């Protein structure tokens, strides 16, 4: 069979991809990944016992909303990176703005605190386990988001893998916030972000291998 005939045959049976296929596939992945991460958190780490009292404190909502916002922006990035040639628009700038905002808030809080309190604000009681707990909770989300992107048409595989990892890390951080006793901006800006960066780095490294066609 000649090349022209093969191309013509493939074109004859090709059907257009439904609008919103990438978004739907990623939503399916999150619909499986988030409950799995919640179950993992509840069984291994446990929900903080004073969560209802903590929910009355504004910083509790900051540590929930910040990673949620990161996950939402990462969802948009993963969706666009799942399609060949799709532009990223303002999403990278918005993502950078979220990180810069939490870091600036953290610096402000530390600068305003007494010198004797600064170490506690930064390290809390769980700095050594926080990033790795987030990474653990991100595993089902990472698997689900990589599966979702693999079934689409990514061409920038390193970036697509990183976006999948950051989406998993952001969503896992939101889940982890239901367990975590820490509620300071410096802690969130360092250790929560560190927890998000681990699956992001893993995704960037594994993306070219796992997402290739």
UniProtKB/TrEMBL annotation:
InterPro entries: NrsF. It holds the Pfam family NrsF. It comes from the Bacteria. The keyword Glycosyltransferase does not apply. Keywords: Membrane, Transmembrane, Transmembrane helix. The chain crosses the membrane at residues 28-47, 59-78, 90-111, 131-149, 156-178, 190-211. This is DUF1109 domain-containing protein.
